[in-house]
């Protein structure tokens, strides 16, 4: 029997070793030599401590350079090739200090002098902005196709639940088969122990089996204690598994056929350990989620890590802003003549498998710019964080989003938003494995979300948050649009439609505008909006889905945004 468990352990450790080999670090990209030469020349001429923090490109052409000023200034400045939206324009280029500055003229003298010095350098020479953006590594990685999801968000170990399931079944089969072959071999050479000979005892439980079973049960219960989250509201699966294994183990002791009895006993020991290994592996993937940092705010619990460079699809690289947003920098305070839309959401606006320019907040900005009256500019600020529920989204608006002085706030509601637990960990209740497995066990996912919206958590998380959002809107004079985003399930599913309507109704109770985004998908086959390499992901549509959502949101937001500013 011990040989069976060794084989199971080897089967689970091999995938981890393979993952470690496949996800080894590769050389990063750096700013091109012309950019570095300009920074060095500016540092010498103006006596500044300058370094290149990051470079950004669009189709191989340099668009932004973030320069870090050392010393007393302690400032990062975004140098943009197109300065139309910059804090200070120098020719066609522009400068924008990164951070929150209520009054730039009240900032310390070293900071203001550093920005002036960079402006002087940019006025003397801006030819570096026409150079290549970055120097590629010696062996550039081949970017995935636009619709292929990269191996999980940065810092997360790629996890495929089918491989885990197949590995677990293979381990159990190997354990049962190995035990049977070993017993037959011993029987063939006449080395059969007396305990395997049929006896008159009604209950058979060798001490070694009892000790192994108790050890597996203790390990599972210790894991349940370690993984416990006080905020979960769904059933904890570990206790049910332990009770079920104990019942099977006791019943197996009354089976008179040795082969069947040994198989059942092996299963009761191997199944809890298999589950434990799956939970441990999936939990490790979340622990290494390095672009997320803990927050001192008890409602937020976590945010994106400011300054963290996130590698995205198609070779894009986005640096988290200083206030923890996965977005391009925006000037604070809001410049005159600018209308701002703040999008509140979770991981859908921040899906790294969708090119940044094709995510619906970026497309919404372009579509609204086409509809804007003459002399008006529109900016869309993505105030979202993966795993957030409605409480966290409204709190992020209050702590960060209000700095951008929104004229309109769009709450991009996803049907898992009433989830009341730490969304930074991908689990249901306390189980990481259940989160991966639920899509296989439940055929109609809309029924799950309908049940979630029928309980107390909808009032606690969603209705209470909308009430708070009403107070913020009245105090800071912005409009609100609540827009439930569609699941990638049949778009005419009555359960999902009922949930969308319930959210719209709750929004209108607060006097907000509301509209269903699913209406832009009616009559379409939902499978056309699934990701080819992640067909079980029903909350994150592919790039074509983002196109549809952006067009629908532009139809809903344009009247609210431009009617307010009409003379």
TrEMBL record:
Membrane-spanning ranges: 160-182, 203-225, 237-257, 264-283
Stretches the record annotates as Disordered: 133-154
Domain of life: Bacteria
Position of the signal peptide: 1-20
Domain SGNH hydrolase-type esterase: 343-547
Name of the molecule in the record: SGNH/GDSL hydrolase family protein
Biased composition (Pro residues): 137-154
Keywords, in A-Z order: Hydrolase, Membrane, Signal, Transmembrane, Transmembrane helix
Pfam families (UniProt xref): Lipase_GDSL_2
GO molecular function, one term: hydrolase activity
